[in-house]
User: What shape does this take?
Amino acid sequence: METLVEGAVEEALRDGRGEAVRLYVAACAERMAPLFVGLRAGVPGREADLDLYAESLSGLWLADRPLADAAERVRLLERFPELQPDEEGIAGVADTYAFFAALCLRHALLAHNSGNADDAVSCGHAALTAMGMLDQDVAGASLLADEQRLQSLSLSGDAAGLWDASVTAGRERLRAVVGRLPRWSSS
Assistant: This one.
């Protein structure tokens, strides 16, 4: 599969140890989290999904060891409406970016549990694809380039600085998406 993940990042993931892979996917998922949590907060019946997402994200940052319940979390995540096949496909801005956030978390959990570089690359690819789409829809945006930079930074091993940068980037992404939502952009 052709991915958007830069060659040097992909190579570092394949050469790295489990902890490096886990830190990388934790950071990718952190940057995408506001696109799920922010776009699904307040949606009736989604409280358990929001809790699962937030708890999984917290667990991903424990990069020194695999999550004991990662497989169960993936199984529950795969029940999310965003990851269910639909004949009509994904419609709407919020649904599109919530899908990519859920997909990113799915791959992050798989990679965190196994240390598998392919799952980590898929996680990074989901984030890059979403940011590429957002760049096309928001004039002057450079979110794809920022995600590429942050993915490279993810391999530095500085978890504290990486967490801060990822939280900030996630908030910026949510603002960009919310600005595209018809009912919110005119307020």
Notes: The chain has a mean pLDDT of 90. The first helix runs from residue 7 to 15. Residues 7-180 form a domain with the YP_001051499.1 fold like fold (CATH 1.20.1590.10). The chain has one domain: 7-180.
